[in-house]
Design brief:
Blueprint (H helix, E strand, L loop, with lengths): L2 H43 L7 H15 L2
Helix pairs in contact: 1-2
């Protein structure tokens, strides 16, 4: 393997590693947001004083569906 080939291979490995790290972080963030939405829906369902409670829950569920894999 020549120096140019070795350099290209190292660059490729770094790029792949960075992409995998980014994707893992993106997956973790989506999971965290889904959990927060679920918590908020549970809170809303347990509160009677909110005027448009069911509509808010439905909207949150719709947002959550966009985060599902």
């Amino acid at each position: 393997m020549q120096n140019g080939d070795a350099y290209k291979r190292v660059q490729q490995l770094i790029s792949e590693s960075s992409l995998n790290t980014f994707r893992a972080g993106q997956h973790e963030e989506r999971h965290r947001v889904r959990q927060l939405i679920d918590i908020r829906i549970d809170q809303l369902r347990g509160t009677c004083e909110i005027r448009y409670r069911e509509q808010l829950c439905a909207e949150l569920l719709r947002f959550r569906q966009h985060l599902d894999p």
